[in-house]
From TrEMBL:
<feature type="domain" description="Pyrroline-5-carboxylate reductase dimerisation">
    <location>
        <begin position="169"/>
        <end position="272"/>
    </location>
</feature>
<dbReference type="Pfam" id="PF14748">
    <property type="entry name" value="P5CR_dimer"/>
</dbReference>
<dbReference type="InterPro" id="IPR000304">
    <property type="entry name" value="Pyrroline-COOH_reductase"/>
</dbReference>
<dbReference type="InterPro" id="IPR028939">
    <property type="entry name" value="P5C_Rdtase_cat_N"/>
</dbReference>
<protein>
    <recommendedName>
        <fullName>Pyrroline-5-carboxylate reductase</fullName>
        <ecNumber>1.5.1.2</ecNumber>
    </recommendedName>
</protein>
<keyword id="KW-0641">Proline biosynthesis</keyword>
<feature type="binding site">
    <location>
        <position position="64"/>
    </location>
    <ligand>
        <name>NADPH</name>
    </ligand>
</feature>
<keyword id="KW-0028">Amino-acid biosynthesis</keyword>
<comment type="pathway">
    <text>Amino-acid biosynthesis; L-proline biosynthesis; L-proline from L-glutamate 5-semialdehyde: step 1/1.</text>
</comment>
<dbReference type="InterPro" id="IPR008927">
    <property type="entry name" value="6-PGluconate_DH-like_C_sf"/>
</dbReference>
<feature type="domain" description="Pyrroline-5-carboxylate reductase catalytic N-terminal">
    <location>
        <begin position="12"/>
        <end position="106"/>
    </location>
</feature>
<keyword id="KW-0963">Cytoplasm</keyword>
<comment type="similarity">
    <text>Belongs to the pyrroline-5-carboxylate reductase family.</text>
</comment>
<dbReference type="GO" id="GO:0005737">
    <property type="term" value="C:cytoplasm"/>
</dbReference>
<dbReference type="GO" id="GO:0055129">
    <property type="term" value="P:L-proline biosynthetic process"/>
</dbReference>
<dbReference type="InterPro" id="IPR036291">
    <property type="entry name" value="NAD(P)-bd_dom_sf"/>
</dbReference>
<dbReference type="GO" id="GO:0004735">
    <property type="term" value="F:pyrroline-5-carboxylate reductase activity"/>
</dbReference>
Length: 274
């Protein structure tokens, strides 16, 4: 079988769908120097969306068909409910020479490959912090996607955060954790700030402290290599303030509630994708 390789120094990247996620990825790719804007293209009927992409040098083409024809790597970043129709419309152009990628939540790799008639497909699950270069993304390689294809996509999505590789069957659980997870953390930040206000802090100071505290704690967990339980113990003095707060969290079932949230979201993802 012929091995199709994409020239890493000259390839063109196309986005089918020009929404916020496509914008975040495109901006990250350009800002990190992975690809110049001149080699990225998309299409959109909304003048406002066109203007956003044009503002940082992305080429706007008349139709999705033109984007596919003029791209080596094609990222489908449309809403999950229209992915099938869009892929089927473009199917005649989706040759094995093109590496296909989907970031549509809940759409299985086997379905994408079947609709496209092309197994050179990679499914990626990013999350919304891609907008600030801190995405947690996971990818799964289709049957005909090569290790080189995986490396190329890891580099693209690595420009907007961190990326892991996992089996497609794990994606519902991934959706429940990293896909929906930012919303759980926003709730936590809001609640911490409300607690600060209840304890007497001005709202703006409380919100700033809450946001930075979550960012700092996540950075510690990510960069020190220490288990979060150890990091928690490091802050918790005998008979001190932190253990009093943790005692209240444990009485409220804090850990169990977070675990249940991930499991519930994963279950819902499974229902929606079946």
């Amino acid at each position: 079988m012929e091995v199709l390789t994409i020239p890493t120094d000259t390839y063109k990247l196309g986005f089918i769908g020009a929404g916020k996620m496509a914008e975040s990825i495109a901006r990250g790719v350009v800002q990190s120097g992975v690809l110049p804007a001149s080699r990225i293209r998309t299409s959109h009927s909304n003048p406002a969306r066109r203007k956003v992409f044009e503002s940082f040098g992305v080429q706007l083409l008349p139709r999705n068909h033109d984007v596919v024809e003029d791209s080596d790597v094609v990222i489908f970043s449309v809403k999950p409910q229209v992915v099938k129709d869009v892929v089927l419309q473009l199917k005649p152009l989706l040759s094995k020479k093109k590496l296909l990628v989907s970031v549509a939540a809940g759409i299985k790799l086997k379905d994408l490959q079947e609709w496209a008639g092309n197994n050179r497909f990679i499914r990626v699950m990013p999350n919304t912090p891609a907008a600030v270069g801190e995405a947690a993304s996971v990818m799964s390689l289709g049957a005909a996607a090569t290790e080189e294809d995986g490396d190329l996509i890891a580099k693209l999505f690595g420009s907007v955060g961190k990326i892991w590789k996992a089996d497609d069957k794990l994606f519902d659980a991934i959706t429940g954790l990293s896909g929906s997870g930012p919303a759980y953390i926003y709730l936590a930040i809001e609640a911490l700030a409300d607690g600060g206000v209840a304890a007497g802090l001005p709202r703006e100071l409380a919100l700033g402290l809450a946001s930075q505290t979550v960012l700092g704690a996540a950075t510690m967990a990510s960069k020190t290599g220490k288990h979060p339980g150890q990091l928690k113990d490091d802050v918790t003095s005998p008979g001190g303030t932190t253990i009093s707060g943790i005692h209240e969290l444990e009485k409220g079932g804090f850990r169990g509630v977070l675990m249940n949230a991930v499991v519930a979201a994963a279950r819902r993802s499974r229902e929606l994708s079946s």
